[in-house]
C-alpha cells in the first residue's frame, strides 16, 4: 500500500508542473509528457521526434513503464534540454541483433549465494531448451528436457545430433525465452513451438560424435524480442582462433555432477572457461580412460579443465560462446557442447561450427528458405548485413569431410 500511495503522489506531482508552465502536454497513447512550446522541440516534432524530460528518455526511446522514474521527485525542477532529449514519436518495435547479451538481465535480478553461477532472466536470448512432448496414461502431457540448443534464425535451432537422433520429430518441441524451469511468473513469457523437420548432418557418427550437428525447423517462427533472439555464427575460416581464448561462456540446464546423484538445474546456469590448445588437450585426454592411443579429431576443440568449472549431462547441444573482442555485448556461438570423460574434473570437448557452416546454410536454404521472406531470415544469422547468405553458403569447408 505504501508503494501505491507513493506512485500516485508521484504522478500527481509530475502532472501538476506542466499545467503551471503550459509548455508540456500529456499524450494519451503512452501517458508521456511532451514539450510543444520550445522552438527546437517544434523543429524535432516535424521529424517525428518528441521532446520529453530527460528522465523520460532512455537509449533513444520513450520510457513508458516507469523504469528509473519512481525516485525522480527531487529532479522535477530540472530544466528540459531539447537538444539532449529527443525520442521517437512512439516507442520503437524490437530490432533483432544476433549474439546480444543482456548484462544484468531483464526485469528481475537474483543475487543470492545459492544461485552463484546462474544467469539473469533474458541474459542469453539465443538459449533454448529441446523438449520431448510425451503423453501420459491419464490424458495429460508432459515436456521432458533433452538438451540445449541455439536459435540461429527465427525458425531454426542448432543443437547436437545425439540429442535428437532417437526422437520422433513430431514429438520434439523447442522452448525459447525460458529461464527458471519451475516458475511461470517471469518478466516475459517463453515460447513453445513444435518441430516440423529435423536434419541431422549426413556424416554424423554416433560412435565418436564426429559431425554431431542437427538442425531443427519449427512449425512457425519465434517472435523475436529482448529475451528471445538469435546467436551469431562465425563469419570467417579461422573459426575459434579468431576469437579471444579466455573467458568463453557455456550455458545450459544440465546436471551439476556426473551420475545418479547429479541434479538438473532449475535456473539457467553459465560457466566461464578458457580454451585449451589441441596438442595440450590431446595429451591430457590420453591420461583418461580414452587411453594413450586416442587422437583428437581436428573438428573438436577443448575448454575448461578446472575443477568444479564445467558443463555436464544435459548440456549437450548448448553453445559455448566466444568473445570476438569487438562488441562488448555480443558473443558468437563458435562451438557446441558434446562430451567429457567426467564432470567437475576433466576437459570438455566441443565441435567447431565454423568448419560446417556451409552445411548449415545449404540445408536451411534447401528446406525453408526458397522465397524472399525466408531469405531475409537467413541473413539474420550473419552479423555483417552487407554480406548475403547466398554469397557465404559455400565459403566454409574446413573440417567438414565432403
> Which strand order does the major sheet show?
14-13-17-18-19-16-15
How many β-strand stretches? 19
Give the CA-CA distance, first to last residue: 67 Å
* Beta-strand content estimate: 25-35%
Q: Mean pLDDT, rounded to whole units?
A: 67
Number of helical segments with 4 or more residues: 7
Q: Note poorly predicted spans.
A: 1-32, 68-85, 237-242, 256-261, 324-334, 368-377, 380-402
Structural classification: alpha+beta
Order of H and E elements: HEEHEEEEEEEHEEEEEEHEEEEHHH
How would you describe the oligomerization state of the chains in this entry?
single chain
Largest sheet: 7 strands, antiparallel
Fraction of residues in H or I helices: 10-25%
Radius of gyration (CA) equals 25 Å
Keywords: Disulfide bond, Glycoprotein, Signal
GO molecular function: serine-type endopeptidase activity
Organism: Lepeophtheirus salmonis (Salmon louse)
Family: Belongs to the peptidase S1 family. CLIP subfamily.
Architecture overview:
- This protein is of the alpha+beta class and 402 residues long.
- It has a domain at 2-88.
- 16% of the residues lie in helices and 26% in strands.
- The chain has helices at residues 2-21, 39-45, 161-164, 278-285, 357-368, 372-379, 389-392; strands spanning 24-26, 33-35, 49-51, 57-58, 61-62, 86-88, 127-135, 141-153, 156-159, 172-176, 191-200, 214-218, 244-252, 269-273, 275-276, 300-304, 319-323, 332-340, 347-352.
- The strands form 5 sheets. It has a 7-stranded antiparallel beta sheet. Strands 7-8-9-12-11-10 form a 6-stranded antiparallel barrel. Strands 1-2 form a two-stranded antiparallel sheet.
- The radius of gyration is 25 Å and the shape is globular.
- Mean pLDDT is 67; it is low at 1-32, 68-85, 237-242, 256-261, 324-334, 368-377 and 380-402.
- Belongs to the peptidase S1 family. CLIP subfamily.
- GO terms for molecular function: serine-type endopeptidase activity.
- Pfam families: CLIP_1, Trypsin.
- It comes from Lepeophtheirus salmonis.
